[in-house]
């Protein structure tokens, strides 16, 4: 009985999160090995009252030396926190829960560089995707760097339409 309840709750939780309003709150993500931390925060409010109009940045730190970032980059913030930081601190990936045909759904950051990937780039179509009140969901999980230890060479995403990988 409890397993059935838990199995039913997981998809509902993902759907509920996906339909939550954006918060635009600063956030932090640690690497899986806890040696690095990425911090996303406001870089410039641009004299505008709305957080979606502001500029944001990401700074990655070695936990042993938090006084100076290893690297930083501009950050395209959609108002939702989260992401994956590689265990060597060189890459940060943000994967949107929501499916967009005409906008990026994956952002890969490294020192001074942002690469974006669309549904078309990842060979994902809107056919058969689960729908929430406001969006279509394309992910089974948020993805991870491979290999997990050492220098990563790929970012792998488990989608509703199969596994996709991005060469770093």
Task: Throw out a few tags for this protein.
mainly beta; 4-stranded antiparallel sheet; 168 residues; single chain
Q: Give the strand order of the largest sheet, numbering strands 1, 2, ... along the chain.
A: 1-2-3-4
> What is the beta-strand fraction?
35-45%
The quaternary state of the protein chains shown equals single chain
* Helix percentage: 10-25%
The total count of helices amounts to 1
Distance from first to last alpha carbon:
44 Å
Largest sheet descriptor: 4 strands, antiparallel
Rg, rounded, reads: 17 Å
Structural class: mainly beta
Low-confidence stretches: 1-16
What does this structure look like?
The protein is mostly beta strands and 168 residues long. The protein is 10% helix and 38% strand. The protein has one helix spanning 2-18, and strands at 27-30, 36-44, 55-62, 71-75, 84-85, 92-95, 104-110, 113-118, 130-131, 136-137, 144-146, 154-159, 162-167. The strands form four sheets. The chain has a four-stranded antiparallel sheet, with no helix packed on it. Strands 5-6-7-8 form a four-stranded antiparallel sheet, with no helix packed on it.
